[in-house]
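Aim 2, interim progress: modelling of the iron/sulfur cluster-bound target.
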Amino acid sequence: MKVKILRRLSPVTEPYWEEFLYDGTMDNSVAGLLDYLNYNDDIVDINGNKTTRIGWECSCLQGMCGGCAMVVNDIPCLACETFLKDIKGDVITIRPLRKFPVIHDLVVDRSVIHKNLTKSDIFIEEYRLSDEDDHAHQYSVAKCLKCGLCLEVCPNYVNGDSFFGALYANDCYLVSVRNRDKKKVISRMYNEHFGKDCSKSLSCMDICPVKIQTLTSISKMNRQ
Ligand code: SF4
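Predicted structure of the complex, ligand included:
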């Protein structure tokens, strides 16, 4: 299988495509393929020329950390949950998420996600019982990986300067039902950084690896 990877050695160098030959098992995931290509001391491209180790990140390799979010054959996904046997054809293209600055190859800087949550005060200050009885939805929202895939497919999210995306809307809901005294300020921040600009494409729900029903959070926040 031919593997084409969009590489970039540092944030200040130009990106370029590099090709590799993968001759391992098709039972592997894309994460497994990257590990395989990086395994030997001497990393070579498809023509046998020496090259550098491919940069990518992961922590759990089981769909729980969100670190390996990337774009495979034009589809944003988690590399650990994308399996080679499900990929059509014998060429695979891999590139980093497009809405975040690239640090190295497939590693991107997603710190804007946490910066936006912090500066809007969207975090649970004190654990309190929720005043809503939709615990299944709250549990689902709490599983957000902050992987950024919902931002990648969102037609309204650009770079996190003003519109903060689906993960923000979900966290607004989760925090507002736990910390009631923050409700007013959260409702204002929600409208400012999500509600007024969301065009409801809902592509965020299709792509979310943990299947968070963002539309439910939106309707609950709108009611608030
Ligand atoms: S809402 Fe889903 S897609 Fe978006 S960051 Fe959370 S887990 Fe990832």
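The pocket of iron/sulfur cluster is lined by residues 66, 144-150, 166-167, 170, 207-210, 212 (CB under 6 Å). The longest helix spans residues 166-178.
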